[in-house]
Design brief:
473 residues; globular; mainly alpha
Length: 473
């Protein structure tokens, strides 16, 4: 009897890693070529103030801390501290992004999801702003790409109830960048641990060994070089507390015409006395309001003439946090929710600022780097990339925004919960936690914080396309 032909959907599920080598090499080579040309044009890469901070931490080797994680410190120390060249870590980060992108896209191509592969290549991996972020000495791009690359491999493993050599290698590569590059990356350790319950046999032990090895290395790194990563709660608390201090015209009217309200309505102050005392011990409240911005806390902490709330003593910081959750939040809940929406939408619509492609010229003289600004002087190539970036920027509300990632995340959450699909939930739950934490705790409307959701369609579009297939039992 002749064997029945295998349906295309089932064939997609049985794709083996070795079948994706040709597409992987082709896509990876194309990405590496474009990223390499970009780096030649903008040598030694894009540098910003966060770049200055980590370079100084590496160069000084003293008590100074940049506010970045210990993994990011040791990565830059290894790649920059041993060479003195900023382009080395930038090139390595761009290559890493290209490899992880190529893995996801090549799998889609080999699985027959050709349109998904081409759309992801053009609109995500080769998007002008994605290329620029990948070439910036900030952890955000590699964090976004590695987090989605890690979730992609875990989705495959849980769906198949198996993890092959290619997936294990990608997990070993992506996991430290996804989990340890940014403080909020620790949430991605949870799906990696959860995947152990779905991967049987030798693969389970190997995956567990990869997780244990990286965790042990990071524990040792913390002991050797204790980091002071920027906390999330205090910046949000002081940012929103200063927002609460802004004058309200209607409140002033009610104060002038007290008979318009019942007496007890005006008796309760909007800000607790302990909060005002803690702030006034540092700077006058009027000074803080003068330097407040609806979407950024930077003016409060970094402006040389501003209140520099980062210098508030630790005891007063604890008072501000305690009073915020005990009193101030509940007496200003509409203002808080409105402010959260302003910050989030500023980030989602890419309305904030970005490091200029020429800012490296101002950064390099402030460091000990031996890198040469625009070493290759390929002005035509530089103008071409800048033209593409400008065109993309004009349509950033459509081309940059993470709405596709949010929509797919909502679908994955609903379907995963309703059908109890572990493969979908292992992707959707940590990303939902990320989204909620960014909404509630972010103190700046930075687009780069939402970059993982821009990359997320590369994980969830294959899941959507293969939704009618039955996962492995």
């Amino acid at each position: 009897m002749a064997a029945r032909p295998m349906p295309a959907a089932c064939a997609a599920q049985t794709v083996r890693p070795h079948g994706a080598w040709a597409p992987f090499l082709a896509i990876g080579g194309a990405l590496a070529a474009v990223y390499g040309l970009w780096l030649l044009a903008f040598w030694p890469g894009i540098l910003g103030e966060d770049s200055v901070a980590i370079l100084h931490e590496v160069e000084q080797e003293g008590p100074f801390r940049s506010g970045k994680t210990v993994f990011w410190y040791y990565l830059v120390r290894w790649l920059y501290g041993t060479t003195g060249r900023v382009e080395v870590p930038v090139a390595v980060l761009m290559l890493l992004c290209a490899v992880i992108f190529a893995r996801m896209l090549a799998w889609c191509w080999s699985a027959g999801l050709r349109k998904t592969c081409l759309a992801g290549l053009v609109f995500v991996a080769l998007a002008p702003h994605m290329t620029a972020f990948a070439g910036t000495l900030y952890p955000d791009a590699v964090f976004a790409v590695a987090a989605c690359g890690l979730l992609f491999e875990l989705w495959l493993a849980v769906r198949r109830r198996h993890m092959g050599g290619a997936s294990l290698a990608m997990v070993a590569l992506a996991l430290p960048f996804a989990v340890f590059t940014r403080p909020n990356g620790l949430v991605f350790l949870l799906p990696a641990l959860a995947a152990l319950a779905f991967v049987p046999g030798r693969a389970r032990w190997l995956l567990g060994a990869v997780i244990a090895l990286w965790c042990a290395l990071m524990a040792a790194a913390h002991r050797a070089h204790p980091s002071q990563a920027q906390e999330a709660v205090y910046p949000m608390v002081v940012f929103e507390t200063v927002n609460f201090l802004r004058p309200h015209a209607m409140n002033d009217l009610w104060t002038r015409f007290a008979h318009m309200n019942d007496p007890w309505v005006l008796d309760e102050p909007r800000i607790s006395a302990a909060t005002l005392d803690a702030l006034r011990r540092h700077r006058p409240a009027e000074s803080m309001v003068a330097y407040s911005d609806p979407a950024y806390w930077d003016m409060l902490v970094f402006h040389p003439d501003g209140p520099q709330v980062g210098g508030i003593p630790e005891a007063d910081r604890r008072t501000l946090v305690r009073e915020f959750f005990r009193y101030n939040l509940w007496h200003n809940l509409p203002e808080f929710l409105g402010s959260r929406m302003t910050v989030f939408m500023t980030a989602a619509l890419a309305q904030g600022g970005f490091p200029a492609v020429t800012y490296a010229a101002h950064v390099l003289p402030r460091t000990r780097s031996v890198s040469t600004y625009r070493r290759f002087d390929v002005q035509e190539l530089e103008r071409g990339f800048i033209g593409a970036q400008k065109a993309s920027y004009r349509w950033r509300w459509l081309l940059w925004t993470p709405w596709a990632g949010f929509a797919l995340l909502a679908w994955a959450l609903v379907r995963g919960v309703r059908r109890r699909e572990a493969a979908l939930l292992i992707v959707a739950l940590p990303m939902a936690l990320q989204c909620g934490a960014i909404f509630l705790l972010s103190s700046a409307g930075e687009y780069r914080y939402l970059l993982p959701f821009f990359v997320l369609p590369l994980v969830l579009l294959p899941a959507l396309a293969l939704r009618h297939e039955a996962p492995a039992p």
